[in-house]
Design brief:
Leucine-rich Repeat Variant, four-stranded antiparallel β-sheet, alpha+beta, single chain
Length: 719
Amino acid sequence: MAPPKDVVKIAVQMVGAIPQLIELQQSKPLAAVLKDICDAWSLPNAERYALQHADGRQTYITESNRGEIKNGSILWLTTSPDQEAEGLYIGIQSNNLGVKSDSLKRLADLSQDVTFAQEFINRNGLKQIFSIVEEGNDTGEILAHTLKAFMELMEHDFVSWETLSAAFIRKIVSYVNMNVMDASVQQLSLSILENMVPSSRVLFELVRKEVTVDRLLTHLQVTNTQLQLKAMALLIALLLAAADAERRDMMDYLRERNIRQFIHKNIIHSSEPLGDEMAHYLYVLQSISLNLHERRMRTPMDPYSQEQRELLQSLRQTAFESESETPASNFSTERRRSLCAKEFRKLGFVNNSNPAQDLYRAPPGLLALDNMVYFSRHTPNAYSRFVLENSSREDKHECPFARSSIQLTLILCEILHVGEPCSETAQAFYPMFFGQDHFFEELFCICIQLVNKTWKEMRATQEDFDKVLQVVREQITRTLSLKPTSLELFKTRVNVLNYSEILKLRQTERLHQEETLAVPVLELRERLKPELLGLIRQQRLLRLCEGTLFRKISSRRRQDKLWYCRLSPNHKVLHYGDVEEGVHSPPIESLPEKIPVADMKALLVGKECPHTKEKSSGKQNKDVLELAFSIVYDVEEYCLNFVAPTRYEFCLWTDGLNMLLGKEMTSERTQTDLDVLLSMELKLRLLDLENISIPDTPPPVPKPPSNLNFCYDFSHAEQ
């Protein structure tokens, strides 16, 4: 007979005692349960004890979390959190350095538990931690344990970062600014400052003032990758918290200090592999830098601005006045206006009498003008060649420089996501971005020449303008997807991908599509689908068995904490648990927590997940919504919450979990994989039919003959 739902069978252990096997009634008060356990071992003062999970993070059992206890769980009878907090509160004040160090180390471990952290903070324990730091008498291991304990206690958000004293903050800053200091202390200090920065404007200004950008750049140049990572994290936190003007100033200073070249040489092309966290920070730095163009992109041209009018006139003067023997100033006003209008028309402006009107549209706004001026000043020969070459063509075949530049600027803004908020989890950055100052402008210079080249290859007319720009967009996106490491390599590859190559690619894709739409082929596809879906299911389960490293993300910041989840080889249990940085594939035995697949009830994704409902609904969380999923399990319907590192991993896990729940795979990746496998299989099956057109309908079966007396009679032949 099955036990009642509110009863779980567990084992309780204690050092030096024979374990107890008990049936825990969930409806029974925890104090009464502890009393029974203590009585069985003849222990007085049951209120001094508590139950704790023996595996994993060893969290204390409370009335609020006791529902997480499962059948077969092993618990420890240990000192209650209030007794532990009291003992450690006294221990960290000891004059004996050994006792003090051990107490602080124990405090750092126990502070991960929310129940203990609450008890310790209620005893004004943070004040003692502040005293240890502010007095400055302890260094090395003791100081590292102190800062680690402080970080763990602050993680629970019981205390606001704004309550920190000025003396404490100055000490933390001093550890970062010291030339000679224990690396672990500096790493923790940088993490503390990183948490402080987004908490309030006052703390941001304080950290920005006390920790200079130069100091962070010094930490970026060390060989210790963890210290390098923490310094980059603080730099990114400062940039994200800064106002637009402050961010612009900081980026200008970083450009002066050649941070891009340093990152390109010493981080991207380092002998050490680039970690996910550093890849994310490089993506954010790239995004912040590109978003500096947003203000100009969203600002239309002001026809009354003398500066903007002069920039516009400089385009005409650079292209034509050097060619003219007679200065335009010698002509009459009417003659000069007519000449200028003619030259602006040659430049490719639609409104040649008032070219400023072409730049009223925002985006791309003034950014298009900036790009044209940059092109004319930094590559004057290419600029003059573009304009003069098209001036000599017939009117309908000339490639309009200004119109093309305006549209190309808009295309580049869309491809590079200029003006869009940074993703919280993305890691996709372009290595060539960090190898080049004025990346956006230099990329424009390459692509505007590509426009002219493609225009000539297509023998385009004014009516083909949109078609040409569509081809150019395709050339750029296809080349960027190859992740070229430098602009020179991008230029080489994008020029190789000429119009004829684009046509070949399109034709191949179109022929493949037409071939696969024939009725017999469609029937064959349907027959092959079940077998190939079986392959995909097999791959999904194998991927779940390999497991994935997930990050814990809070509403405040990107967390450093990692956890790993994998499916058992027999597909019956999900194992998971916290892991340290650098562990990529922990053995299944090291993952203490587990969920039987039979207990899984449902899979939630996106906005349905409980951990996304707790977060704010800002634009910056859109990417988290796209990567979030949760498993609902057990009778009480607990949730295990995930945020996948990539969309690919999200698809693999949601497909695999849906299969374990007996449901269909619904991710977009399933359809993509199925299409690829079907395409490969169909090509193999249809190899013998190459260059043979497949009819839409099968050939008709001929009618049977009127009689079957058409066999040859050999007997007559013998006569």
